[in-house]
Write a structure and sequence with these properties.
Helix 5 links the parallel strand 7 and strand 8 (about 170-175). It is globular and about 45 Å long. The protein has a domain at about 1-15 and about 35-55 and about 135-140 and about 170-228. The chain has a 6-stranded mixed β-sheet, sandwiched between helices. By secondary structure, the chain is an alpha/beta fold. The protein contains 7 helices and 10 strands. It binds adenosine-5'-diphosphate and magnesium ion.
Length: about 230
Amino acid sequence: MDLAVKTHSLSKSFGDLLVIRELNIDIKRSERVAFLGPSGCGKTTLLRCLSGLLTDYSGEIQRRYSKAGFVFQEPRLIPWSSLYNNLTFVTQDEKKIQRSLELVELDAFGNHHPSKLSGGMQQRANLARALIVEPDIIFFDEPFQNLDLKSNIKLMEAVKRIQKQQKWTAVLVTHGIREAVVFAQRIFILSKKPSHIIKEIDMTQEKETDFFSTKTAEYEKMILEYYE
Ligand code: ADP
Ligand code: MG
């Protein structure tokens, strides 16, 4: 199997607080996976361990990728710089900047300041910034959460479209069930903390998981049963 990330018995505590308990996960190259779990269960912590932002965990993590991109919940754009200039902090290469703005359909907005962009556009700018480094994996921490439904769907579609084209590995953590169903080829349902996997769902055969499809609602109902 062509592996991107694999953990063996991954656990993570903050002092006495055990947050992640003995996780064994493998994520394949070019796969879109989602970790779904309630607020506070340790999703951000897991993402930070998987991506190597946190290193003081126990157990093992193999990382078989070279460049990682990150998309977090807050866009983290510098307010007094134009969108274009925000991206020059990542690269000076004009073509790369232009190309990534085109990918997220913001090429007409390069000279706008972040405050002039809608929340959805700011998140697409955030995605553009992650794409500039030409990553082979992108870690997403609830990037859709603060958006209205329409922007949420648009951002998700952009992420999926670009991922299918460029084939980087996508690792999403979220508490949005529908988001996970629409987005992922494999869903890991996490328990409350200390977090472990209570169910793995293979979505690769599902073709009809659009945001509003009956199939998606069925999955949502089924997954809800794993939460009390
Ligand atoms: P989620 O992203 O699922 O909401 P987090 O990973 O942010 O959850 O947090 C999981 C638990 O770990 C929470 O109880 C949180 O308070 C705790 N936690 C997270 N980061 C730290 C930290 N740096 N120091 C101490 N506790 C932390
Ligand atoms: Mg979080």
